[in-house]
Amino acid sequence: MKTPLLAALCAAALSAPTAGAQTVRAYFGTDGDGIYVAELDTASGTLAPPARAIEIGRPGFLAIHPNKRFLYTIAYGGPLGKQGGVAAMKIEADGTLSLLNAQSTEGRGGCHVGIDATGKCLMVAYYGSGSVASFRILEDGSLSEAQSYQLHEGSGSHPHRQDKPYAHSIIANPSGTYAYACDLGIDKVMIYRLDADRGTLAPAGEAAVPGGSMGPRHMKWSADGKHAYVLNELDLGVSLFKAARDGQMEFVRTLSTLPEDVGKDKMTSSELRIHPNGHFIYAANRDTTGAGRDSITLFSCCEEGFQRIETIPARVRVPRNFNIDPSGKWLLVGGQESHDVAVFGIDPANGKATFTGQRIPFPCGPICIEFP
After folding, report:
1. Is the pLDDT of residue 4 over 70?
2. Within 13 Å, how many C-alpha atoms sit on residue 129's CB side?
3. Which end of the chain has less neighbouring CB within 10 Å, N or C?
4. How far apart, in Å, are the Cα atoms of 69 and each of 90, 93, 96, 372?
5. Which residues, in sequence order, are bridge partners of residue 309?
């Protein structure tokens, strides 16, 4: 329930129409009391102050439906209880969100949601239980009960972080035929055959991330579905894979997200994104000591030219997540511990990002950024 003051702030912050040629909305999942929304001026790079789009407990990762009418998130509290679940919301004309329904499964510690390209299936990764689940997305945007639930098995070589499976993300390939779940605890990407119409996942293999104690966290597919990039949280690297037959992946190589002369102690990687033009990859690195080593790394994006280009300061503390606006000109970096978002301008010709000087305060830590 919005207070009169909050309602007024929301109205002011969301007054610019999303259909405007030079503005786009950005939604922010947080570690606090709701999902926030802010307008980004794509001509100047100015990010407006955020307004709360919906009050919901600890909404972590977000996924926006391909038709841009619905939004899904991990959430806790209320009808979902402490174990949490996944919530479906409608994106209203003014940018606010209205709850459609919520579902839970036996999974614990949900941390990531993904949607196939047809918008028929929502997939969820559960870090706490090392498992994944899937739901049908109904015509009104709401979610069915869970249609499948898969529990991972195994462990890794890291003494503290890989004692058991920790499923960290799940995404579909561009053709929507297979889904891929990065499991930090077992150094593998688990592969599932995806039936989007039925909303089900069926085991179809696995791809190991060589090296030991790598900790695969998130991954992205190239638009043509020929290559996949896996971000390794523990070893701070990006692993390149080639697509193979029957949904399988062939490992090519791994590049460090940090230069050789930069220490990795107490550092972890968090997110990677591919530029809209398909030529560049960005990865975020977090300094868990608070010593200011948080950074963003730029890579070139193709098999032959896959290489690190540069690493720059993130300008926030603990960049849990970041994203690039659809125009490809602006990079928003969320500071989970500094409670702000830094804005960078991107040169599409070389991919390099330059800090604009903007750091927009947030009432809580932004941990996911998505554009409709």
Report:
1. no
2. 19
3. N
4. 6, 9, 11, 8
5. none
Matching residue, tokens 């900790």: 215
Name the CATH topology of 105-256: Methylamine Dehydrogenase; Chain H (2.130.10)
Residue 245 neighbours by CB under 8 Å, 6+ apart: none
pLDDT tens-digit readout, 43-84: 999 999 999 999 998 998 999 999 999 999 998 877 677 778
Give me the DSSP letters along 256-291: ESS-TTS--TTEEEEEEEE-TTSSEEEEEEEETT-S
Tokens of 55: 């009050």
Q: Contact at 8 Å (CB) between 135 and 144?
A: yes
The whole model's pTM is what?
0.93
Contact predicate 76/126, CB 8 Å: no
Where are any strands of DSSP class E within 116-260? Answer: 121-126, 131-137, 143-151, 167-172, 178-183, 188-195, 200-208, 216-221, 227-232, 237-243, 249-256
* Domain coordinates in residue numbering, the chain: 105-256
